[in-house]
Amino acid sequence: MPIDTMISGPMLDPFRNMLKECEEKQLSGPKFDDMKTHLNRMKEIANQQSDLNEFNAQLMKEDLFSKFSMAYSAVLADAAKPANSGDTSNYDDAALLKTTVDAYKDSVQRIKDGLAAALKEAAKDNKADDTTIEVAALFKDEALIKPIEDVIKLGESGISLPEFLRILIEKGLDKAMEGSVVTREGYVYLLNWSKADMRCPYDIKMREEILQKFDELASKAAFGVPDSLEMTLDEDTLEHKYHTAIAKWNACKDLWDDILSYIDTWITSYCNYAPLILPWKMAADPKTAVIRTQDTYPGYIKVKLARFEEYFGLHFEDIFKLKSFINEVKAYRIEWSKERIVFLKNKVFPHCRPFNHPPKEVITEAEKMHNEKREINPELHRCIERPMAYYNSQFGDGRYQERFGTVEPNDSKAAPWVL
Predict the structure, then answer these.
(1) In 3-state terms, what secondary structure has residue 376?
(2) CB of 268 within 8 A of CB of 274?
């Protein structure tokens, strides 16, 4: 599901307005085309992502804010240059240098105006909908403006145009304006978010290698700015390298989670309270729905286990040894308590096969576990601790809670997980 336009709109509208302004002024050229390309990419990411953090991370990773702003600045700079009529007698070096510096000054103001417009669009009365803090942090206006201001200062130092251009190239000031600092921060953000969210180790390793590659190319570059094309190709290579491993990890995790969930639902359907809880209470006839679950779920589980073996060469007992299972436990993302998992594994699963039903003593134990509130992981609320801490480190203390709220501890009486 795409990002809600109520969220993505305030972040992208300033860039739409900048593009519209250039269109109204009938500006064109390669840099104008770059503006359209970068904005279209922002829209594409908004349609691909359903999570705001993933959306922000991808924008930072691809450095789209700064790329758009630099292209916009270049378009305005080109527009500010005097048309060449073939008669250059009216323009000397000083006039051309002043025109160039003025264009850079205009670029700085446009960046500031763009941030102000973005903040205005992002402001909402409801704190949960207000994204001004995120926009201000992601826009990185200071990192974009500082190199341009250094160029302006050089241009106003009293030197000639040829000397200005020579120093610009020799000191790499033109490269500094490409925003490599902003690009590196995007890679760091993605790596740290992957660690905070305790994603699969292949995802973390991939992001570590991408950052290492950026630093390696930067160390070899004349002015510490990696060649953007070379970096893009290397990044694509690393993403391709880890794509299969990441997909396999996630697919395996989703499948064993489904298997456990189906087994838990199957035994719950035999409990005396089943017709009174979800999902059965939503049915037109809850009791009939309960019976349907009892009759059909063992078949579903058998099919899923067959896929588990076919795709990954694994059996039911292997689930609890998997690194993905252990990682989910450490991340507090396992929904069930340890004793519930042990119960499902040792007492429920052996009876879970087509045309079979669990014995009375197993059903009684399941009901007792429910009544004594020992089914759920008592530390499930801790799953957001690391993501919340990192989000707040980027956007301000308490910001995560303002935007997304908190997960309150449940009333489970089960013991915490111990591996």
Answers:
(1) strand
(2) yes
249-286 pLDDT, tens digit each: 999 999 999 999 999 999 999 999 999 999 999 999 99
Q: List C-alpha distances in Å: 383 to 184, 241, 287, 407, 408.
A: 28, 29, 35, 9, 11
Confidence of residue 243 (pLDDT cuts 50, 70, 90): very high
Count Cβ neighbours within 10 Å for each residue of 334-365 and write b for 16 or more, e otherwise.
Answer: bbbbbebbebbbebbbeebeeeeebeeebbeb
Residues making up the chain, counted from first to last: 419
| DSSP label of 338 | H
Cα 178 to Cα 113, 154, 226, 312, 345, distances in angstroms: 19, 17, 10, 45, 56
Please give the pLDDT value at position 147: 77
Determine which of 49-53, 189-193, 310-314 has the lowest per-residue pLDDT on average.
Answer: 49-53
Look at phi and psi of residue 386 and say left if phi exceeds 0, alpha if psi is from -120 to 50, else beta: alpha
Check: CB of residue 29 under 8 Å from CB of residue 75.
Answer: yes
